[in-house]
């Protein structure tokens, strides 16, 4: 897993069918982390920066602060994501790592800022531009 906003596309594109549904595997990981109490433990700061939540139909991994129980303003991928229903039971742990119920203005601005930092001066593609406009 990597640090940053959203990543893991190459890893997820080669997910073996024999491993079962991706959300199930990540659900087991989140269950283990919850049992270990990492949400408020010494490893929480590192986990807050890890892209460990599968989003966008299992095509990407997002950091918890970019994942929300609901995104009432519509599809805003790749900036913010709605928590997959299969992982909803792990919302308490994800909240302790930065997820929230719904994005506020500060969350949306921070997502755009993170995207700008990650772009390293490169322009957004057409889909990202459309999401940025919806986000604003």
What kind of assembly state do the chains in view correspond to? single chain
Order of helices and strands: EHHHEEEEHHH
- Rounded mean pLDDT score: 85
Query: Between the first and last Cα atoms, what is the distance in angstroms?
Result: 29 Å
* Helix fraction bin: 40-55%
| Computed structural class | mainly alpha
User: What is the overall number of helices?
Assistant: 6
Largest sheet: 3 strands, antiparallel
Give the radius of gyration. Answer: 14 Å
Using the alpha-carbon principal axes, give the shape. Answer: globular
Range of strand content: 5-15%
Low-confidence stretches: none
Number of strands: 5
Strand arrangement across the biggest beta sheet:
1-3-2
Question: What would the keywords be for this entry?
Answer:
136 residues; mainly alpha; two-stranded parallel sheet; 6 helices; 5 strands
Walkthrough of the structure:
- The structure is a single chain.
- The protein has six helices and five strands, in the order βαααββββααα.
- By secondary structure, it is mainly α.
- The strands form two sheets. It has a three-stranded antiparallel sheet. A two-stranded parallel sheet has the order 4-5.
- The longest helix is centred in the last third of the chain and has 15 residues, at 105-119.
């Amino acid at each position: 897993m990597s640090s940053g906003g959203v990543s893991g596309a190459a890893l997820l594109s080669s997910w073996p069918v024999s491993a079962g549904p991706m959300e199930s595997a990540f659900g087991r990981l989140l269950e283990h982390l919850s049992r270990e109490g990492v949400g408020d433990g010494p490893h929480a700061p590192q986990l807050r920066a890890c892209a460990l939540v599968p989003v966008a139909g299992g095509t990407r991994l997002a950091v918890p602060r970019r994942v929300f129980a609901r995104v009432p303003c519509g599809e805003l991928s790749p900036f913010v994501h709605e928590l997959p229903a299969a992982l909803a039971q792990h919302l308490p742990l994800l909240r302790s790592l930065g997820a929230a119920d719904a994005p506020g203005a500060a969350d949306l601005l921070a997502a755009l800022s993170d995207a700008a930092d990650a772009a390293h001066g490169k322009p957004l593609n057409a889909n990202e531009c459309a999401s940025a406009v919806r986000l604003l």
